[in-house]
Specification:
198 residues
Amino acid sequence: MSFIHSKGFLYVKNLIIGVGAAVVLLGALEKIEHTQFIPGVSLITVGLLVEAGLFLMLGILPPHKEYYWEKLYPGLDDYSAPMNAILDSPQSQVDSLPGIDGDKMDQKLSGMLTELQSMSSSLGSLKALQEVDFSGTSEQVKKMGDFYTNLNEAMANINDSIEDTKRYKEQLSALNGNLGSLNTVYGNVLNAMSSIGK
Protein backbone atom coordinates (compact mmCIF):
# COMPACT_ATOMS: atom_id res chain seq x y z
CA MET A 1 0.00 0.00 0.00
CA SER A 2 2.90 2.41 0.66
CA PHE A 3 4.13 1.82 -2.94
CA ILE A 4 0.86 3.28 -4.27
CA HIS A 5 1.48 6.48 -2.26
CA SER A 6 5.17 6.74 -3.18
CA LYS A 7 6.40 9.61 -5.35
CA GLY A 8 7.77 7.20 -7.96
CA PHE A 9 4.40 5.51 -8.48
CA LEU A 10 2.60 8.86 -8.67
CA TYR A 11 5.10 10.05 -11.29
CA VAL A 12 4.67 6.88 -13.40
CA LYS A 13 0.87 7.12 -13.10
CA ASN A 14 0.87 10.76 -14.27
CA LEU A 15 3.29 9.87 -17.10
CA ILE A 16 1.05 7.04 -18.34
CA ILE A 17 -2.05 9.26 -18.17
CA GLY A 18 -0.30 12.08 -20.08
CA VAL A 19 1.08 9.77 -22.78
CA GLY A 20 -2.32 8.04 -23.17
CA ALA A 21 -4.07 11.39 -23.59
CA ALA A 22 -1.45 12.46 -26.15
CA VAL A 23 -2.04 9.26 -28.16
CA VAL A 24 -5.82 9.84 -28.12
CA LEU A 25 -5.33 13.42 -29.35
CA LEU A 26 -3.00 12.27 -32.13
CA GLY A 27 -5.54 9.62 -33.11
CA ALA A 28 -8.30 12.23 -33.20
CA LEU A 29 -6.08 14.45 -35.38
CA GLU A 30 -5.41 11.45 -37.61
CA LYS A 31 -9.16 10.90 -38.06
CA ILE A 32 -9.84 14.61 -38.73
CA GLU A 33 -7.04 14.86 -41.32
CA HIS A 34 -7.88 11.45 -42.85
CA THR A 35 -4.22 10.43 -42.68
CA GLN A 36 -2.29 7.69 -40.92
CA PHE A 37 0.85 8.68 -39.00
CA ILE A 38 2.02 5.09 -38.51
CA PRO A 39 1.16 2.81 -41.47
CA GLY A 40 -1.07 -0.05 -40.46
CA VAL A 41 -1.78 1.37 -36.97
CA SER A 42 -4.82 3.43 -36.06
CA LEU A 43 -3.73 5.73 -33.25
CA ILE A 44 -7.30 6.45 -32.23
CA THR A 45 -7.83 2.74 -31.49
CA VAL A 46 -4.55 2.46 -29.60
CA GLY A 47 -5.26 5.67 -27.68
CA LEU A 48 -8.76 4.65 -26.71
CA LEU A 49 -7.51 1.23 -25.53
CA VAL A 50 -4.81 2.95 -23.44
CA GLU A 51 -7.40 5.35 -21.98
CA ALA A 52 -9.72 2.43 -21.17
CA GLY A 53 -6.84 0.75 -19.34
CA LEU A 54 -6.07 3.98 -17.48
CA PHE A 55 -9.67 4.44 -16.38
CA LEU A 56 -9.70 0.82 -15.22
CA MET A 57 -6.48 1.41 -13.26
CA LEU A 58 -7.87 4.64 -11.69
CA GLY A 59 -11.07 2.81 -10.77
CA ILE A 60 -9.18 -0.02 -9.02
CA LEU A 61 -6.59 2.10 -7.19
CA PRO A 62 -7.74 3.91 -4.05
CA PRO A 63 -7.90 7.71 -4.26
CA HIS A 64 -4.65 9.45 -3.45
CA LYS A 65 -4.75 11.66 -0.36
CA GLU A 66 -2.89 14.91 -0.75
CA TYR A 67 -3.15 16.07 2.88
CA TYR A 68 -3.06 13.99 6.04
CA TRP A 69 -5.05 16.13 8.46
CA GLU A 70 -5.63 13.20 10.80
CA LYS A 71 -1.97 13.48 11.89
CA LEU A 72 -2.72 16.96 13.27
CA TYR A 73 -6.28 16.16 14.40
CA PRO A 74 -6.47 12.50 15.45
CA GLY A 75 -9.80 10.87 14.69
CA LEU A 76 -10.56 13.17 11.76
CA ASP A 77 -10.63 10.32 9.22
CA ASP A 78 -12.85 8.14 11.44
CA TYR A 79 -16.53 9.01 10.96
CA SER A 80 -17.60 7.58 14.32
CA ALA A 81 -14.79 9.24 16.34
CA PRO A 82 -15.92 11.72 19.00
CA MET A 83 -15.14 15.32 18.06
CA ASN A 84 -14.49 18.07 20.60
CA ALA A 85 -15.39 21.61 19.64
CA ILE A 86 -12.33 23.80 19.34
CA LEU A 87 -14.20 26.73 20.90
CA ASP A 88 -14.62 24.88 24.26
CA SER A 89 -11.07 25.63 25.41
CA PRO A 90 -9.00 27.15 22.64
CA GLN A 91 -5.96 27.85 24.81
CA SER A 92 -5.71 24.28 26.06
CA GLN A 93 -6.10 22.92 22.52
CA VAL A 94 -3.39 25.26 21.21
CA ASP A 95 -1.09 24.43 24.11
CA SER A 96 -1.60 20.71 23.48
CA LEU A 97 -0.26 20.99 19.92
CA PRO A 98 3.42 20.11 19.73
CA GLY A 99 5.83 23.01 19.13
CA ILE A 100 3.21 25.81 19.39
CA ASP A 101 3.33 28.46 22.12
CA GLY A 102 -0.17 29.80 22.83
CA ASP A 103 1.01 33.21 24.12
CA LYS A 104 3.12 33.89 21.04
CA MET A 105 0.22 32.79 18.85
CA ASP A 106 -2.12 35.23 20.65
CA GLN A 107 0.39 38.09 20.24
CA LYS A 108 0.79 37.41 16.53
CA LEU A 109 -2.97 37.15 16.02
CA SER A 110 -3.62 40.42 17.90
CA GLY A 111 -0.94 42.14 15.78
CA MET A 112 -2.57 40.82 12.63
CA LEU A 113 -5.97 42.02 13.88
CA THR A 114 -4.57 45.53 14.47
CA GLU A 115 -3.10 45.62 10.97
CA LEU A 116 -6.38 44.42 9.48
CA GLN A 117 -8.27 47.16 11.35
CA SER A 118 -5.88 49.85 10.04
CA MET A 119 -6.23 48.44 6.52
CA SER A 120 -10.01 48.55 6.92
CA SER A 121 -9.94 52.23 7.94
CA SER A 122 -7.61 53.03 5.02
CA LEU A 123 -9.98 51.27 2.62
CA GLY A 124 -12.86 53.25 4.14
CA SER A 125 -10.99 56.49 3.42
CA LEU A 126 -10.36 55.36 -0.15
CA LYS A 127 -14.05 54.56 -0.55
CA ALA A 128 -14.98 58.02 0.76
CA LEU A 129 -12.55 59.57 -1.75
CA GLN A 130 -14.14 57.47 -4.49
CA GLU A 131 -17.57 58.88 -3.63
CA VAL A 132 -16.43 62.52 -3.95
CA ASP A 133 -18.00 64.21 -6.97
CA PHE A 134 -15.27 65.50 -9.27
CA SER A 135 -17.64 66.11 -12.19
CA GLY A 136 -17.34 69.94 -12.09
CA THR A 137 -13.62 69.97 -11.42
CA SER A 138 -12.56 70.13 -15.06
CA GLU A 139 -14.83 73.16 -15.65
CA GLN A 140 -13.39 74.89 -12.57
CA VAL A 141 -9.83 74.17 -13.71
CA LYS A 142 -10.70 75.59 -17.15
CA LYS A 143 -12.15 78.74 -15.54
CA MET A 144 -9.01 79.13 -13.42
CA GLY A 145 -6.89 78.76 -16.55
CA ASP A 146 -8.98 81.46 -18.28
CA PHE A 147 -8.62 83.71 -15.23
CA TYR A 148 -4.82 83.35 -15.24
CA THR A 149 -4.72 84.00 -18.99
CA ASN A 150 -6.75 87.21 -18.52
CA LEU A 151 -4.57 88.18 -15.56
CA ASN A 152 -1.42 87.76 -17.67
CA GLU A 153 -2.95 89.90 -20.42
CA ALA A 154 -3.89 92.58 -17.88
CA MET A 155 -0.35 92.56 -16.47
CA ALA A 156 1.03 92.95 -20.00
CA ASN A 157 -1.36 95.86 -20.58
CA ILE A 158 -0.27 97.44 -17.30
CA ASN A 159 3.37 97.13 -18.37
CA ASP A 160 2.49 98.75 -21.70
CA SER A 161 0.61 101.53 -19.84
CA ILE A 162 3.62 102.13 -17.58
CA GLU A 163 5.85 102.48 -20.64
CA ASP A 164 3.33 104.84 -22.26
CA THR A 165 3.16 106.87 -19.03
CA LYS A 166 6.98 107.17 -18.94
CA ARG A 167 7.03 108.39 -22.56
CA TYR A 168 4.21 110.85 -21.83
CA LYS A 169 6.10 112.18 -18.80
CA GLU A 170 9.25 112.59 -20.90
CA GLN A 171 7.27 114.41 -23.57
CA LEU A 172 5.71 116.66 -20.93
CA SER A 173 9.17 117.47 -19.55
CA ALA A 174 10.38 118.31 -23.06
CA LEU A 175 7.28 120.45 -23.67
CA ASN A 176 7.82 122.20 -20.34
CA GLY A 177 11.42 122.98 -21.35
CA ASN A 178 10.24 124.28 -24.71
CA LEU A 179 7.64 126.47 -23.03
CA GLY A 180 10.34 127.86 -20.74
CA SER A 181 12.48 128.69 -23.79
CA LEU A 182 9.48 130.23 -25.54
CA ASN A 183 8.74 132.38 -22.47
CA THR A 184 12.33 133.60 -22.49
CA VAL A 185 12.16 134.39 -26.20
CA TYR A 186 8.78 136.09 -25.76
CA GLY A 187 10.20 138.14 -22.84
CA ASN A 188 13.13 139.20 -25.01
CA VAL A 189 10.77 140.13 -27.86
CA LEU A 190 8.64 142.25 -25.48
CA ASN A 191 11.74 144.00 -24.16
CA ALA A 192 12.92 144.66 -27.69
CA MET A 193 9.52 146.00 -28.69
CA SER A 194 9.30 148.24 -25.70
CA SER A 195 12.81 149.65 -26.39
CA ILE A 196 11.87 150.33 -30.03
CA GLY A 197 8.69 152.14 -29.00
CA LYS A 198 10.62 154.63 -26.84
